[in-house]
């Protein structure tokens, strides 16, 4: 047994993975690289293929074609026990009849009793549960059970950690706290980590990079800021965060016609002659103090107070029947008492999708 907390983080490579279940294609030529020590989230809705990809990497499913490399080794056809990873499932899968101590030490086969006891103590200290050795899973909270499952996954000192929706059984406040804890722990250990989630907040909070999946494909693989600010496809734009869509036709390279309005576009907005313009709600200026480009009269439909921000629904005067959203700081609410306002859609905020 390795006495280090983990092995040095190992890079992971996925090359052209295909997986079908009968006529259904679960994974369609999926490729991605995960650097040593990096935390990557597979993000997407149910049925997009993210869990199937994780199971193929773990060896719990056999891909129909493609290759998998962990730490430079081709593990494409190796059994799960030969792949040098720890895994934390959505259900935690703790043994209810075993103590915390026995659960964590379960995978440490071939080690002496004193060695196992020392290792279990290291893991309990790592996850902040010293003193809970003799408790049973039923005596622990959901967050504590998750920590025990994480300690068990890390106990054999794997070079790769696989997480399958590990926070989904927890309430929102505990989830956010444990996300932060897990991220800090992962950075401290330098362990390469691949995490499956459908929760975009989790992915944004934790990941170095996010692979947004849809219909068995990776639609975009980038940092959270890149994915949010410059989504690569309409699906990514709609799935990550809120957004506004405006139908347009091109007047020129620098201008688009949206209903009865002409809007200026940024030089790198895209070259499509028609389609939809995409804009984040927080990019819209409401009653700006100075003149801005793409400034239009609008009518307020509804204002919703959301604590640290307000969400306003409005219609552009020359685009009726097409509600849009803007997000503002709460202190901006008093100036929104009137129904008639002015809004600006900055050219840099408008992205073109054909």
Automatic annotation (TrEMBL):
Q: Which residues form the signal peptide?
A: none
**Superkingdom classification of source:** Bacteria
Q: Does the keyword Kinase apply?
A: no
Chain ranges of the ABC transporter domain: 12-240
What PANTHER family would the database entry show?
A: PUTRESCINE TRANSPORT ATP-BINDING PROTEIN POTG (PTHR42781:SF5), SPERMIDINE/PUTRESCINE IMPORT ATP-BINDING PROTEIN POTA (PTHR42781)
Q: Which InterPro entries match?
A: AAA+_ATPase, ABC_SmlMolc_Importer, ABC_transporter-like_ATP-bd, ABC_transporter-like_CS, AminoethylPonate_ABC_PhnT2, Mo/tungstate-bd_C_term_dom, P-loop_NTPase, Transp-assoc_OB_typ2
Identification of the protein by name: 2-aminoethylphosphonate ABC transporter ATP-binding protein
Q: Name one GO molecular function term.
A: ATP binding
Keyword vocabulary terms for this entry: ATP-binding, Cell inner membrane, Cell membrane, Membrane, Nucleotide-binding, Translocase, Transport
**One Pfam family of this chain:** ABC_tran
């Amino acid at each position: 047994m390795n006495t280090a907390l983990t092995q040095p983080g190992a890079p992971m490579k996925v090359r052209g993975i295909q997986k079908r279940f009968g006529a259904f294609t679960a994974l369609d030529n999926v490729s991605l690289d995960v650097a040593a020590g990096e935390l990557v989230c597979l993000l997407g809705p149910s049925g997009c293929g993210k869990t199937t990809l994780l199971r193929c990497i773990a060896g719990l499913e056999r891909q129909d074609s493609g290759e998998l490399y962990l730490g430079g080794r081709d593990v494409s056809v190796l059994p799960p026990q030969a792949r040098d990873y720890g895994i934390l499932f959505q259900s935690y899968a703790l043994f209810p009849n075993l103590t915390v101590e026995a659960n964590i030490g379960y995978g440490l086969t071939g080690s002496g009793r004193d060695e196992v006891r020392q290792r279990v103590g290291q893991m309990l200290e790592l996850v902040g549960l010293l003193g809970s050795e003799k408790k049973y899973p039923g005596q622990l909270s959901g967050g504590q059970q998750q920590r025990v499952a994480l300690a068990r996954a890390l106990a054999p000192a794997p070079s790769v950690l696989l997480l399958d929706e590990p926070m989904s059984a927890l309430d929102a406040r505990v989830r956010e706290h444990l996300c932060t804890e897990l991220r800090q722990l992962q950075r401290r250990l330098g362990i390469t980590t691949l995490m499956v989630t459908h929760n975009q907040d989790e992915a944004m909070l934790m990941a170095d990079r996010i692979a947004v999946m849809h219909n068995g494909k990776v639609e975009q693989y980038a940092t959270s800021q890149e994915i949010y600010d410059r989504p690569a496809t309409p699906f990514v734009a709609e799935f990550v965060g809120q957004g506004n869509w405006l139908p347009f036709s091109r007047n020129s390279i620098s201008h688009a016609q949206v209903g009865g309005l002409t809007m200026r576009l940024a030089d790198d907005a895209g070259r499509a002659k028609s389609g939809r313009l995409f804009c984040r709600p927080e990019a819209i200026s409401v009653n700006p103090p100075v003149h801005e480009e793409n400034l239009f009269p609008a009518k307020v439909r509804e204002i919703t107070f959301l604590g640290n921000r307000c969400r306003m629904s409005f219609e552009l005067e020359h685009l009726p029947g097409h509600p849009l959203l803007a997000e503002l700081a709460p202190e901006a609410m008093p100036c929104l008492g009137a129904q008639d306002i002015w809004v600006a859609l900055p050219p840099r905020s408008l992205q073109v999708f054909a």
